[in-house]
Specification:
Blueprint lengths: L2 E2 L1 H12 L7 E9 L3 E9 L7 E5 L2 E5 L11 E7 L2 E7 L5 E2 L5 E3 L1
Parallel strand pairs: 1-6, 2-5
Antiparallel strand pairs: 2-3, 3-9, 4-5, 6-7, 8-9
Length: about 110
Amino acid sequence: MLNLTPSAISAVEKFIKGASTPVAGLRIAISGGGCSGFQYGMTLEQNKSEDDVVVEYGAVTLLVDPLSAPMLEGVTVDFVDSLNGSGFKFDNPNASSSCACGSSFSA
């Protein structure tokens, strides 16, 4: 399914600890849009949906809807903190191409 690097897990744990409301997990989803046709989305969720695919990484729970799950198969999520900025980076082996910003792809 989906893989998180230790750096990504640490960043998500910090976001969860800083949340003002209880968090059931981090939702990672694919939606239409972006420069290349599909884009990644991440949100802290208060509730799980019954049909969510749930992946546990220690204290981090990932929630993936059934439509996004096939497109996230084998994806690695990393958190990069550099002089050029910080943020989550997606490495998707299923993408036929991706944009320069790394936040959208085509299948």
